[in-house]
Amino acid sequence: MPGTPRKKATIAGPRTKKAVVKTSAAELDRMQAVIWESLDEDKAEDIVAIDLAGRASFADRMVIATGLADRQISAMATHLNEKLVEAGFKKVRLEGANGTDWVLIDAGDIIVHLFKPDARILYALEKMWGADLDEPSTLEE
User: CB 3.0 to 4.6 Å from 67: which of 73, 91, 125, 140, for a disulfide?
Assistant: First the structure.
């Protein structure tokens, strides 16, 4: 077939995707317990868990916590990564762990956001993903 590799791939169509393996509720609870314990040990403040099941395609749960300094947030992320791997959760990715106001830990079915206080207020993820947004509006027209 003539053409570039990109054209050949386009003609061939999309590759078949592998079957998505859904994590059980018990396994999600175990992962969340490891996350919660690690953050609590590292003195994270205002830890919140949000259920995203059926509301987001990227994760089933989200955990949000606050750290007071860059070094604390970086240490929390590093310790959390180590504890998740020790517990058997291998596909953990860190973003922003080099000293920023916000570190994201993608543990697959649970996303963890670690913020400095000002950044947490600015991004307001609890308001964006909170359950109160799912309730019907009571405003009269």
Answer: 73
